[in-house]
Amino acid sequence: MSSSRVHHFKLVLLGDTAVGKSCLVVRFVRDEFFEFQEPTIGAAFLTQTVQLDESTVKFEIWDTAGQERYRSLAPMYYRGAAAAIIVYDITNPDSFTGAKSWVKELQRRGDPNVVIALAGNKADLESRRKVEFEEAQSYAEENGILHLETSAKNANNVKALFVELAKKLPKNAPQPEREAFPLAAPQNDNRNCC
Amino acid sequence: MISENESNRSLEKTIECMANSDVCSDPYHYHSFVSVSFILLPFYKICLGCDERLEVDVFGTSRPSVRCMACGVYAHRCCAFSKHIKFDKCSVNYTNNKELRELSTVKDDTSDDMSHLSLPSEDGKDSISRPAIEPLDSHELPISEISPSPSASFINELLVASKSDNVESDGPVTRKVPLHFASHGFNVVSQALQENIIVSFNRLMPKENDNRSIHSDDDRASSSDENNSTSIATCSKNSGKLFEPSEPHTVIRKHIPLFTVAGSIVGGFVGVVCAGPVGGVIGAAGIVAGSHLQERIDEARVIELGEGTQQLVLLIRPSIKIPEQIWFDIYQQAKQRYPGNFGSGLVQRLIPNETNAARRERYEREVDIVETGEDEIPFADKVLLLASRILNNKDSLPNHVYRELIDAFRCRALNVQYDEDQNHLNRQQRRQDSHAVIKYVTAALLETKAGFGSSSSIIHLAAIVESLVFSEIYGLVMEEIEMEYENQDNELLEKVANFERKKCQDEYSGYKSCISEAALNALHCIPQAHSAVDKLRYCVAFLEKISEHFSNNTETRSAMGADSLLKMVCQHIVVANVFRINSQIAFLEEFACNEELLRGREGYSLVTLKASIHFLNSSTDFTEIFCHDEV
């Protein structure tokens, strides 16, 4: 495997409370073996690397609080995010409505180039399904966002969600880093000839 | 409690580090001693311990001497480490550690821990016992203040915090693990010592002229340092207690003009004796030259001999506005006043202030640092060591620029204070100025060593410069921020006080079960750190401790998600009742600029803390935070 360049991306998890945001990301991060377990803050901040054919994407995953009372704090979290996963619960139609509002908010106030994925979680609870796949899929197509149904419980589509997201992220974007720039020579050159 | 073997191992590492860096920290009087070559030993110096004159030890028959890098005092080596001889504490290190003194409180007598330890004696052949630590009186500092290093203090805090978290704590932390006895890696000790020296040295620099370090690269003649004295002395008058003079150096400084004239007269006399009229003429010329030199020193001479590298590499922060032209002018003036510019003159060529051997030694040491393996010295520490070597060199351009910019900052800050009374305040000026100081000190370092300009190095370099700069001006900057956020801070404190009164009356009295003492300790440490990087570390520690506490308390041991974390952060902030927490967050927002950190867990911790405080500021009733509905 070629030693490709590692691209760092901030990924934010959005969605109503109890839709399984944390479980989804813990399943993605902890379910796989990786050599270096980087320090995390519970399940609220995690990192995970996705190996693509030509590059490596490292996600820095920021979880957010889903309670309504903390809704106004969300912009602090998704500011500067390159990718976002908006999670809803397929057994809870209200969470899908909430997910739509998150999509709107992100499109309006987030980074214009943010890559959004809509994740219908708890897909293992097929018998209790209240949000049809087609409905969510058509909404996603209308808004030009990714859509997958996932199950954090049995890991179905979890990795695929992050891989698809990684593929859509621009790999040639300049990495935000504190750089040194050459500055022009001082305007007042006081050098004397003698 | 740290075991005896562990303590000895840590001490060995410390001593090994001291041997490598030629510095031996005195844990009792807080001096940073280096040995002094007899060639450089001033004959008029007396020992701080025994008050006897220091001997010139040519044939190894006399007692060797040491000098404190921080305050410049001299002592016999045997006196410096004798348990029987008491002498004054290092004035510079003592001053630096004032803030840390509030942080650290040593209740237990640490003599049990230290009495069994030993250090090499002055001749290095055998060892002498360390004196037992006496109980500290109100004027003494605790042992943990040997190094004011943020990283060292941070580690000590965490050691204590993790201990206190496991044990049911009934109050604030009362015992710290001294740096020399903590279990830590080599690089941490090295970093701590280096930071100690950097901070101390930079505080001392404006007053130091007569002392020469054992390090060859510090041996350069410093007659031209007088150049700085005029402007620095002017500023130091205004800077008040933040810039305390160092007494041992004032005597020689006063006598430099006298020595110059006397030397010139003697030279003329010898010339007459030796070479008759011709020698007399030369001697007279010496008198004139000496007088002229002194005159120019008094005028704060500006000699422009070469501008050095024309292409500066500067640190740009697009989001930060600074009074660019003013600080560019200050920077240029500082460079023009740099005595090294004078070094290419005739006098400097005739009497080089750094020998080839010294230059080679300095170069080899830098090569040693660079070529050491990553496992032994991490990259960040290499940058730190190299940058600190340059800034330690009193003859270097960055050191000179650093001192001048700090003084200029203080002068401008005091002017702002005056303007404020007149309602002509630029409320951001100190912050903008501090950005400028950081920027131009970094620029001076980059000009000296362009390799720092690589993307990976510059992040570490900027953090180092920020730490150094804020060790000098943090108080002034925070004063401005606290003024701006005074209302918000007071309102939050009032809300907390109301909640405290309420919780005594109702069911919220049991809220402490979900509070982590270690997390509270970490939160309380944020105001005591003086740089954005260190504050961010405490922010991370704060969230980690909460997360650990929660994970340990729950039966499922599941990791804590953001839904629970944000609520618990709010709870801890209310319980901790941190003084002026809004100002602390404002400081971090202003100065935490490292994109790499802000994208990672440091950034997440900062945003979570900021979000929690924003929520608390807008909340009218804190009781809902302590409801058990969503945990």
TrEMBL record, chain A:
Q: Which SUPFAM superfamilies match?
A: P-loop containing nucleoside triphosphate hydrolases (SSF52540)
A Pfam family of the record is Ras
Single GO molecular function: GTP binding
Which key words tag this protein in UniProt?
Nucleotide-binding
Keyword Hydrolase set for record: no
Q: Where is this region: Disordered?
A: 173-194
Q: What is this protein called?
A: Ras-related small GTPase Rab5
- The source organism is Fragilariopsis cylindrus CCMP1102
UniProtKB/TrEMBL annotation, chain B:
Task: Name the Gene3D superfamilies for this protein.
Answer: VPS9 domain
Q: Which PROSITE patterns does the UniProt entry name for this protein?
A: VPS9 (PS51205), ZF_DAG_PE_2 (PS50081)
Residue ranges annotated as compositionally biased, kind Polar residues, are 224-239
UniProt record, GO biological process: vesicle-mediated transport
Q: Region Disordered: start and end of each range?
A: 105-132, 208-241
Query: What SUPFAM superfamilies does the record point to?
Result: VPS9 domain
Q: Locate the VPS9 domain: which residues? A: 486-625
Domain Phorbol-ester/DAG-type, which positions? 30-90
Sequence intervals crossing the membrane: none
Q: Where is the composition biased (Basic and acidic residues)?
A: 105-115, 208-223
- Residues forming coiled coils: none
Query: What Pfam family is a match for this entry?
Result: VPS9
Q: Which domain of life is it from?
A: Eukaryota
A GO cellular component annotated for this chain's UniProt record is: endocytic vesicle
Q: Which GO terms describe its molecular function?
A: guanyl-nucleotide exchange factor activity; small GTPase binding
Classification via InterPro entries: PKC_DAG/PE, VPS9, Vps9-like, VPS9_dom_sf
> What protein is this chain from?
VPS9 domain-containing protein
- This chain's source organism reads Fragilariopsis cylindrus CCMP1102
Organism lineage? Eukaryota, Sar, Stramenopiles, Ochrophyta, Bacillariophyta
